[in-house]
Amino acid sequence: MTFECKPLQAGVPLPGSPELRALVAAVAAVAAGAEARDRGETSPRQAIDLLRQPRIGTFRLPQPVGAAASLPQLFEFVIDLAEADSNIAHILRNHFFNADRLLRSKYSPIPPLAGAG
Hints:
The structure is a single chain. This protein is mainly α. It is about 50% helix and about 0% strand.
């Protein structure tokens, strides 16, 4: 399997940045429909797409691939996200767990973060 690291793009919110806070606020706006999603009336796709556009899945990956967030920064983001919509945070939890697990693997195609491992 080949893995291609795409360089960090403008628009990937860095930890603690106003852009990241704005992203969480946008998800909070989508969270207004959280009860409808809980009842199965709507899909979480819109909220996930809001997070996919700025490549939030790369939040923990090292630069230039991602934002190189520390674990405390990741936890802060996920807690903020969970306050907006806990289901969206749970959807991303497995992604962040597996991304971090890959970073710590001796087989990782991505150079490790400082302090990882």
